[in-house]
Amino acid sequence: MPRIIKPVPGSFTTADISVDSSGRIYAASTGTAGGGNMVRTFDKGEDGTSTFTAQPTTTKLHMYLRGAGGGGGGGTGGQMGKNGGHGGFGFFNIPVSQPYSVPYTLGAGGAGGQSNPPNGSGSAGAASTFNTNLVANGGNGGSGAPGSPGSPGTLQNDTVAYIDGDTYGDSLKQLFKPEGMCLQDSTSESEVFQNTANRIGPNTSLMEGVQKMRVAGTGGVGGNAPNNDYIPGAYGPGTNASSTRNGQTGRDGSLVIYEDIG
Amino acid sequence: MAYLIFKNEEGLTRSAGTLIRVAKTDADVQITHGGNTNTVNLVDITDAEYDAYLKGETNLNITADSHSFENNPLQSESEVDASELREQDALETELQSYKEELTAVFNKRPTHSQIGKITSAIDFLTNLDTASISYPTESIHNKCRRADKYVNLHCI
Questions:
Q1: What is the rounded CA–CA span in Å between residue A233 and residue A241?
Q2: Residue A181 backbone dihedrals phi, psi, to 5 degrees
Q3: Same domain assignment for residues B151 and B84
Q4: Using CB atoms and an 8 Å cut-off, which of residues 108-127 of chain B contact chain A?
Q5: CA pseudo-torsion sign A18, A24, A26, A27
Q6: Which residues in chain B are contacts of A151 at CB distance < 8 A?
Q7: Looking at this predicted complex, what is its ipTM?
Q8: pLDDT, tens digit, 9 for 90 and up, residues A97-120
Q9: Same domain as B88, residue B138
Q10: DSSP sequence for B22-89
Q11: Which of A137, A143, A230 is opposite residue B85, by nearest beta carbon?
């Protein structure tokens, strides 16, 4: 015969309850509300150093950090330079004690390989850091033709890694995590096209609906290159074999933050 | 004292692909790492080496953790290899691309020690009359070097 130990009448919000070994509630009281839903409150995709200040009621951050992309290598002799490596990219779960204000740095993209010498390597992208100890390193510069793509960047103190020193091929699959995209800061359609289509590597494209978002941290495309023989007008009236030989600059690192204030 | 700034990751060797920037001053180094000195690895070079590399007068070779600068003489335009010549469309595309890159670093790094040289290079490119040039002609980088207006973007 069950025995009620003590009645606990009343209405409780987010209740704390106590249950005995027979599954009976013998104590109840109003508890403390759990964390709020995560709300995207911040994104940035240009290099530089600044300070992030959390909202006053935030107790937890979800952060997506990218290092900068390496520059593409220069082309020569009819061969393209190789693409720069993509920046390290990962998710970081950060508990917050208020007040919370910390420095962050977003790395600058690596410069493209130069045309003189014609097959110069691109330079590495710089690291992105948050509160000094959370790090997404930049990708290496791509080699000049006929070398190899730059190695992608690595992570330090991450919760989940998307790009962490992976092969260049594997890193291509991880570029378009929506949480890692930043608002496009240019209104130029040609700039959007350049950012989303030209710079992301072969056989990779974006849906039109997301073209106003920028994928940061991508390695620069290797420089195009002319054939050894000068061919007047080979690519249309008044042009020579190629107009571009330098590798392209890598994309700057980025930072996207969600806070539990919803 | 100037610096080669390399990535600093465990097990990483110094190479052309792990070089982030070449910097003239400590403040320029600070722009690159944003105060997180543990993310970079510095190698000292002389101011003269930096200045020559900035102007394209030398090439930088990095192999097996060591580096060297070698002269990069500027040929006269008549000696430039035919494969390196440009028609007007190609030259103007190249000019526009280089100018956009210089303008981007000018806007993003206004406190850089070489900001005056960047401004001077942008002005040169803006005022270059491509319609008055005889084609085919040498690259835009060569034209900048000949006018002492070239800025190596690896140094900014």
A1: 7
A2: -95, 145
A3: yes
A4: 108
A5: positive
A6: 17
A7: 0.91
A8: 999 999 999 999 999 987 666 678
A9: yes
A10: EESSHHHHHHHHTT-GGGEEEEEE-HHHHHHHHTTSEEEEEETTEEEEEE-PPPPGGGS-GGG-B-HH
A11: A230
Based on the domain organization, do B26 and B45 belong to the same domain? yes
Contact: A126, B21; criterion CB under 8 Å: yes
Examine the fold and report which residue of B11, B39, B71 is the final residue of a domain before the chain moves on.
B71
**Are B67 and B94 within one domain?**
no
Q: Count, in order, helices (H) and strands (E) of chain A.
A: 2, 14
One domain for residues B85 and B57: no
The parent domain of residue B88 ranges over 77-155
pLDDT of A8 > 60? The answer is yes
Cβ atoms A150, A168 nearer than 8 A = yes
B71-91 confidence digits (pLDDT tens): 999 888 888 877 778 889 889
* CB within 8 Å: A143 and B141: no
pTM equals: 0.82
What mean pLDDT do residues B116-130 have?
Answer: 96
B100 and B150 housed in the same domain: yes
Q: Judge whether residue A229 has pLDDT over 70.
A: no
For B106, phi then psi, to 5°, come to -60, -45
Please judge whether B94 and A244 are an interchain contact, meaning their C-beta atoms are less than 8 angstroms apart.
yes
Report yes or no: A184 and A212 within 8 Å, Cβ to Cβ.
Answer: yes
Q: Does B36 touch chain A (CB under 8 A)?
A: yes
% of chain A at pLDDT higher than 90: 45
Show which of B56, B71, B86 is a domain's final residue: B71
Alpha-carbon distance A190 to A197, whole Å? 10
Give which of B10, B39, B57, B63 to mutate to test A binding, by max A Cβ within 10 Å. Answer: B39
Are residues B48 and B63 located together in one domain of the fold? Answer: yes
What is the SS3 assignment for B124? Answer: helix
Same-domain status, B101 and B86: yes
Q: How many domains does chain B have?
A: 2
What residues of B are in contact with residue A241 (Cβ under 8 Å)?
83
pLDDT for res A13: 73
